[in-house]
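so my prof wants the structure for this chain in the tokens format not the other one, which i didnt know existed until like an hour ago. anyway here's the sequence
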Amino acid sequence: MRQFSKAGRRRATLTALAFGLCMAVLFSGGRAVERVSAVPQETYDELETFTNILSIVQKNYVDQVDTKQLLEGAVNGMLASLDPHSAYLTPELYKELQVDTKGSFGGLGIEITNRGGVLTVVSPIEDTPAAKAGIQPGDQIIKIDGEFTKDLSLADAVKKMRGPRGSKVVVAVKREGVPQLLDFTLTRENIQIQSVKYKDLGDGYGYIRITQFQEKTGTALEEAISTLSGGSDDKLRGLILDLRNDPGGLLSQAVKVSDTFLDSGLIVYTDGRLDSQKQKYFAHKPGSHTEFPMVVLVNGGTASAAEIVAGALQDHKRALVLGTQTFGKGSVQTILPLDDQSALRLTTALYYTPSGRSIQATGIVPDISMENNVQLQKVEAKKTPSQQQFLREENLPKHLENGNSRDPNADPSLKPVPKPIKDNGGGDDQDQDETPDDPGVQGTMGEVGKDPQLDRALELLKSWQVFKTLVAKND
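here's what i got, hopefully its the right format
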């Protein structure tokens, strides 16, 4: 029998550990991401340090330790060092993620992120307990059921806030401009998210709001257009597409929604280190609706898939984008399943609009910059909170930098979007850089006469029809 020295056994152990880690990450769920021919020497050195620390903790810590818990914590720490969106999904969280994209799940309805160790609300999801109670973008979640959340991971926060339907949870938030904590007692619900909402604004003008991009968003959008147009695009004189406070969702549905309004050309492309992450998505003529003008409404809560749609329609001059600068989440996360029913959510590429703009940490700058000067959502508190400055991707620790460059993948026929026009909508004339973003429409669709951005969008569509008629007469 062949004998091994102590150093040889240690190296063999480290080799096995390195190989196991590589296989877990690179061949998760049977899908090869990249084949590594050799493990670098520095990896052996670091892994030796790791195994030594693990051994010392197991032997000397004051209490008996759970090795699985220690390793899970190490994985979480490793991924947290990368960017805000890479994470380890336990089997429970991975299952919830799969359910979430179908538009039905239990909980409170809050999109959250971790900002400097503090749980921060990106956006409440429309028509959920959180939105109805008045939780706003930018709120910092300080306590959950009386327990402080400092340095609580997103995964643990989700576990604390989700629970059986009908059960209650108390969330204490810190809000800018309000000296005391605001306590919200929320009743958990089995949340059914209606991805697409719409209404007829009269005189041939339609309004469609997309709250999230889910599995059936594209189909629901088609049904909404058919209802508003009566089955004929010629009867629709203009459409307002509201993407405010839309946190995003499935890339496939963002492409499908964009394809609905474009009959040709590039919609979005992704670029990463691997060839498999270099993808292009194109529009197709069949089924396209291009006969009517459009205005897209955006704000600081417009993120990810919603930004892809806004950017594609803006670059192709298919729609006028109105509102405030969007969130700026331009990175692609790939879900890599592991053998124990858990998964990695790993940032693998960046999104680019058709003209070659990176959305990352910059977002979509509207053609017409306009804030809502009326706060639509009132919160019952002793003091009325000031308007919130939207949390954006650029505010998150360890966020990826913008990848802007004129890329060979970009459509050369498309020019960069010019500087936005400032539109006060008849309100105050304070400079945009000194005016905080408004919360937009939370928990409800825009209402004509009470939503300045929606009112302005409708005016623009009607003006377009007037000019179109004048041009036709002159011809």
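also thought this was worth mentioning. Confidence is low (pLDDT under 50) at residues 18-37, 375-388, 425-443.
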